[in-house]
Amino acid sequence: MARATGRPDLPAAPNPASPQVIRNVVLVGPGGAGKTALFEALVAARVPGQRTGTTEHVRTTTLTAASFESGGVTVNLLDTPGYPDFIGDLRAGLRAADAAVFVVSGADGIDRPVSLLWRECSAVGMPRAVVVTHLDQPRADFAATVEACRRTFGDARATLWPVVEDGAVTDVVGLLTGETSAEHEEARAALIESVIEESEDATLLDRYLEGEPLDTDALLADLRTAICQGTFFPIVPVSPLTGVGIEALLGMVERAFPDPTVHPLPTVTSPVGGTVKGVACDPSQPLVAEVVRTTTDPYVGRLSLVRVFSGTLRVDETVHVSGHLGDFVGREVEGHPAHDDDERVGPLASPFQDQHRPRGTAVAGDVVLVSKLSRAETSDTLSSPDRPAVVAPWLLPEPQLPVAIRAATKSDEDKLAGALQRLVAEDVTMRMEHAGETDQVVLWAMGQAHVDHVIAQLADRYGVTVTAEPYRTALRETFVRRCSVQGRHVKQSGGHGQYAVCSIEIEPLPRGAGFEFVDKVVGGSVPRQFIPSVEKGARAQLEKGLLTGHPVVDVRVTLTDGKAHSVDSSDVAFQTAAALALKEAANESTMALLEPIDRVDITIADDYLGAVMSDLRGRRGQVLGTEPADGMGPEGGWTVVHAEVPQAELSRYPIDLRSVSHGTGSFVREPLRHDLLPADKAKELLGG
């Protein structure tokens, strides 16, 4: 097997022969907890020449992977972003993995945002171990962190205890296997009781209460089973910077974390919705794999990080590529049109940060990089051409922050569309919209950090410079009082002229009623063949707008009278007369602006409910009601607020809600209707 390019000292790519010797592990935790430093320390412990974690203050913005051998198994380790703007990469990492290492700070405690990350793991039934870092900081308290984990996470207990000397972690003590002292007895007893609760041996509790010595090996076996099944969460103290606890954590990954045959497979169907038979985590079964992330390397080209669920993926093999993301989210997704194609698999490689170690195959359960899959995008399925399949995608968050961008130069404008299409195809949490009414290119993102990352990617990867500009909501015009006007279009210039006169009445309709046209002409003053022309001209002018250029809605136009000429009247003349009549009727006394109103459902921790309600009032929001939130973890204390809010007040709401709720709030919204825009707000939006 060839060595990695650019790193002659890097070992050859692992090539596991069966799923049973694979461990797919994802690092999860809040920003600043030390995930990236832990990632580097774990890799350095098994890969000669790899640098150890030198800092705990690196913000990870993308999913990073490294494969290495450890204790007879292949570990595919994935590092995910902890910042909420990059939750898409977190969920992609959870899809690729079978177990998680949840990283928390022993100095910062467990807050609501941390519990939200824990819920992300719980939602997919992920077995977890909890790693406590930052124990060398002055305010660190391991015992208090253990209790906080138990209150928040459920059945979580320390399996090792840190030895702290002069403010530094120098060693760890195994509560079941090490030489414990009196200070460890309470924690050791609590751990044994938890293991007994998880044990299938019904006599174990009675023997323990009677004082019978318990077999340590049997306890360890029960502990590993509980960890593998995801019913017990061990807590491990680790110092990524000094390496203390790293070997213990790797040993747990090797012996207690599940292999891919244990973790349930995602739902798999055929492209037409039928059942695909024989799908199992077995190299001999039909191929089913999923692209969990795509990116573009300046030297290699397109790179796809693929999780193989069933069968074996081979270089130069023809596979079927299925993409049906829109069917699962209920709408067409920019950059992810429905498609079914056959394509030859390019070179395979084991992921190792920015290094590529070639390999020939990837068996069921493995995670592998595939080069030059030109037709496969993030969340697409790879399968056998004779048995095409579609894997149900992971839960996709809806981007809620709109940012309008404009190319800085004509050269940037020529390249912008292609660059954005590529980035949107790679990142399923970003949406691009061409807002025709406001003449803006709008990026819908997860937050400001996400926007900054996308703009940096445009500049670094594609050489496109863009500037952000205020996002404009699409307003509407409407009539607010009844009026009668006449439109007269008469022109004589030799030969056939143009002649049309129409008298119309205009009256407002209820919100959402749309446009109505009524014909009340009597006596043939307007010939029958020209009445549709009046309606056509009215509709066209209402679409263009009358006062501000926004479409006019919720109005009834009634044709009451008119005049025609036997020679000079025409379809175009009556269309023009109808448009002139509407323009004649439009002024500040007869018309007003309408703004879009969204239905908003906000999930918030009860601690910040008052602040959120006050903030909604400041946004001209109307609270419709509240109810307890379901499925938010064992600690409860969450509420869903239902409200109606003007869309213009929500343009920065993802950022503001995060600030008001201390990172605990989230929301979804949907367009509801248009309502009258207050006069003072109209002046603000229209620049006076």
Automatic annotation (TrEMBL):
<dbReference type="InterPro" id="IPR041095">
    <property type="entry name" value="EFG_II"/>
</dbReference>
<dbReference type="Pfam" id="PF00009">
    <property type="entry name" value="GTP_EFTU"/>
</dbReference>
<dbReference type="Pfam" id="PF14492">
    <property type="entry name" value="EFG_III"/>
</dbReference>
<feature type="compositionally biased region" description="Basic and acidic residues">
    <location>
        <begin position="336"/>
        <end position="345"/>
    </location>
</feature>
<dbReference type="InterPro" id="IPR020568">
    <property type="entry name" value="Ribosomal_Su5_D2-typ_SF"/>
</dbReference>
<dbReference type="InterPro" id="IPR009000">
    <property type="entry name" value="Transl_B-barrel_sf"/>
</dbReference>
<dbReference type="Pfam" id="PF00679">
    <property type="entry name" value="EFG_C"/>
</dbReference>
<dbReference type="InterPro" id="IPR047872">
    <property type="entry name" value="EFG_IV"/>
</dbReference>
<dbReference type="InterPro" id="IPR014721">
    <property type="entry name" value="Ribsml_uS5_D2-typ_fold_subgr"/>
</dbReference>
<protein>
    <submittedName>
        <fullName>Elongation factor G-like protein EF-G2</fullName>
    </submittedName>
</protein>
<keyword id="KW-0547">Nucleotide-binding</keyword>
<dbReference type="InterPro" id="IPR035649">
    <property type="entry name" value="EFG_V"/>
</dbReference>
<dbReference type="Pfam" id="PF22042">
    <property type="entry name" value="EF-G_D2"/>
</dbReference>
<feature type="region of interest" description="Disordered">
    <location>
        <begin position="336"/>
        <end position="360"/>
    </location>
</feature>
<keyword id="KW-0342">GTP-binding</keyword>
<dbReference type="InterPro" id="IPR005225">
    <property type="entry name" value="Small_GTP-bd"/>
</dbReference>
<dbReference type="InterPro" id="IPR053905">
    <property type="entry name" value="EF-G-like_DII"/>
</dbReference>
<dbReference type="InterPro" id="IPR035647">
    <property type="entry name" value="EFG_III/V"/>
</dbReference>
<dbReference type="InterPro" id="IPR000640">
    <property type="entry name" value="EFG_V-like"/>
</dbReference>
<dbReference type="Pfam" id="PF03764">
    <property type="entry name" value="EFG_IV"/>
</dbReference>
<dbReference type="InterPro" id="IPR000795">
    <property type="entry name" value="T_Tr_GTP-bd_dom"/>
</dbReference>
<dbReference type="InterPro" id="IPR027417">
    <property type="entry name" value="P-loop_NTPase"/>
</dbReference>
<dbReference type="InterPro" id="IPR005517">
    <property type="entry name" value="Transl_elong_EFG/EF2_IV"/>
</dbReference>
<feature type="domain" description="Tr-type G">
    <location>
        <begin position="20"/>
        <end position="261"/>
    </location>
</feature>
